[in-house]
Amino acid sequence: MKNLIIKILLVVLLLIVGGYALDKLMTEVPGYVLIAINKTTLEMNLWMAVLTLIVLLIALYWGVKLLRLSWRLTRPALGIRSSESAAKLANRGMLAYMRGEHDKAQRWLLRSAKKSPMPLVNLLAAADSAQALGDTGKALGFLDKAKPDFGEQSVTMALARAEIFRRANNQEARLETLLEANQQHPNSVMVQDRLCDTYMELGSWAEVREMLPRLRPQLPKDRWRELQGKLVIADLKALQTQQANEEPSEASRKLQMFWLEQASRIQQIPQVCAEYARSLIIVGDSKEAESTVRKFLRSSWHKDMVLYYGLMDSADSVAQLSHAEGWLKRHPKDAILLLTLARLSMRNHLWDKAKGYYQKSIEAGPTREAYSELARLLTSLGEHQTSGLVYRDALRLDNTDAPELPMPPMAAAKSESNEEAQPEAAEQHEENAEQAAVKS
Questions:
Q1: Are 370 and 339 in contact (CB under 8 A)?
Q2: By the 8 A CB rule, do 333 and 307 touch?
Q3: Using one digit for the tens of pLDDT, what is the confidence trace for 332-341?
Q4: pTM above 0.70, yes or no
Q5: Residue 34, strand partner residues
Q6: pLDDT in tens, 338-354
């Protein structure tokens, strides 16, 4: 408090001294200012002129600040944004785009595009948001606003346009866009990759077969292997159609010859191997199909092929189960293998064995398939209370359709003959399992 009083007294003293000095100066130094413009003259006291100049400078300073404030307030309403505000709006738009809020994203990104340091990025993201909302016309319109000024940007915009057509399921327009881009940029690997993919979607396998050799040295090995695998799958399906009226033995021989012509790295693609096995089953050679899948799994353990083995239609399902159980030594805690064993047990009407494998599969790694199929089995066995609990657990996981498998008769309708059939099947299975173990 004492310091404050001292400061006030000092200010008052300075004002008194300053006022006295100013009065003395104005009294002892008289003068006037004369301003003449043509025939008009303006004359005033020197000190009045100085005071007027000071007031005018202060008014000018605050006037400029007021105009700036008014401009900032009215600029958004007029659709005019500064670079800083546009950058902030673009940032909000990109964050909304990443969150999947496409309605907000396309609005904010488009409004900030003109002042954005990266307008093409704004327009690409806005177009993708519009397409995500199902408005293909608006998405293409956003891309039309862009004016790429060099090759890389031009390729990017062409690829973006092709992607919009792909998501709109307009493969013809996608093909036309990519063909035009390929003419303008014949050395673009990405354009040729997408072009090859489009030919596959349209079923133009002759064009794919022509392009793949040229793409091989340019594409990553995994991508080229994927494209080559799709071509082989298409060839297998074509063989299935051609062999519809052929003798099963001849059809199987042709399939095996075709398979031997393929490189080992192509044979090791799960989808390709599964399609080959499916083709063999169609012509009635399930034994060779099983052998092919088992050979694949010996060299490369893959869950999709393990699942496929459990869904194969085999002429000898008992031997199929025995072979699969032989894999348990190396993969005792594999949930997918245990699920496959449960399904093969179901095909052999070994209900108790199937129940045990389903439970072990769930313990190793819960899946909705295992829960759903176990609950369905328990219902058929009359264990309704336990089945309800298993169904409840199944609902917590992702939805998956259960495959068609043999089921035991409902508990209320079971006959003694059905109950006696299971031990006989189990005894035969155990005998086959022992033989398979000795061979392995």
A1: yes
A2: no
A3: 999 999 999 9
A4: no
A5: 43
A6: 999 999 999 999 999 99
